[in-house]
Amino acid sequence: MSERTNEAMNQEKVRIDRGEGRPLAGDLHSPARPIAGVVVVHGFKGFKDWGFFPYLCDRLAEAGFAALRVNLSGCGIRSEGEMFDAPDAFENQNLPADVADIGEACRFLAGRLREVAAGGLPIALLGHSRGGGAALVHAAEDPGLAALVTWSAVARFDRYGPEAVAAWERGETVPVTNARTGQTFHLQPRFWTTYAADRSRYDLLARAAALAHPWLIVHGAADETVPVEEARELHRVAESGPTRLVEIPGGSHTYGAVHPFEGAPEPLQQATQETVAWLRERLSGA
């Protein structure tokens, strides 16, 4: 697995101020002497404690990274549980808020790292699925970010049927059911309209083409939710910076992981190993 560079590790519950009286909940996995930081972001219907996220952050911390996993403000979970106890937050989620939350998480981690290293340490960003798309948008707008990693990332945000789009444009809600919990939510029009009003900002292929940061694209070859061709599209257009595509054989959208977590299948282990090795190569001397 990853090289152990720090024997002493700590996991800490944190709260990140984002205004509006609703701080972001996070978990910071910290080695004794971090070499860099990584902010880890979930996707649609995801949350910081889902499946592989604690495992991934443990492996990152073992390799020397301070890894921060956060609940985006629109994820629908405010407690430390696994049920969606804030349906209003889920139903009112939108891309501008996701990108703003990512920025706050990056600033929080940068501040923490300035406490342990004079001048601070480099920060990388890792996003999964829709969170990978939001991470790409943030990376394109943050010249201070050191590197980007996306897992199973979408290549476009416009992935909803004409009936749903028409409902949102009429000012109606669209129902979405979470298969794990059985809860049904009603996505408010802003889920769509905030994207439609600023399509150029959220054009992921254009963002990929202009991105200057080092970027690792990881995708499961058997992804049933976001086809691997979307990763290939992103890689094809990413001409400005050093970009690497890794396709994980047999990898599903979650690399074989489930929730509750039942251990790391081979595809998840490979995705993690590739990510840790790439980040160590890019950031250990930054």
Strand order of the largest sheet: 1-2-4-3-5-6-9-10
Amino-to-carboxy terminus distance: 23 Å
Number of distinct beta strands: 10
Summed over residues and divided by their number, the pLDDT gives a mean of 94
Structural class: alpha/beta
Supply the number of helical segments: 9
Low-confidence stretches: 1-7
Level of helix content?
25-40%
- Rg: 18 Å
What's the shape? globular
The major β-sheet equals: 8 strands, mixed
Strand content: 15-25%
Give me the strand/helix succession: EEEHEHHEHEHEEHHEHEH
What can be said about this structure in brief?
With 286 residues, the protein is α/β, with parallel strands linked by helices. It contains nine helices and ten strands.
What distinguishing features does this structure have?
286 residues; alpha/beta; 8-stranded mixed β-sheet; two-stranded antiparallel ribbon; 34% helix; globular
What does this protein structure show overall?
With 286 residues, this protein is of the alpha/beta class. The chain is built from nine helices and ten strands. The radius of gyration is 18 Å and the shape is globular.
Q: Which helices and strands occur, and which strands form pairs?
A:
Elements: E1 9-16, E2 24-31, E3 36-41, H1 52-62, E4 65-70, H2 87-91, H3 95-114, E5 123-128, H4 130-141, E6 147-151, H5 162-169, E7 174-177, E8 184-187, H6 190-196, H7 204-210, E9 215-220, H8 228-237, E10 243-248, H9 266-283
Helix pairs in contact: 3-4, 4-7, 7-8
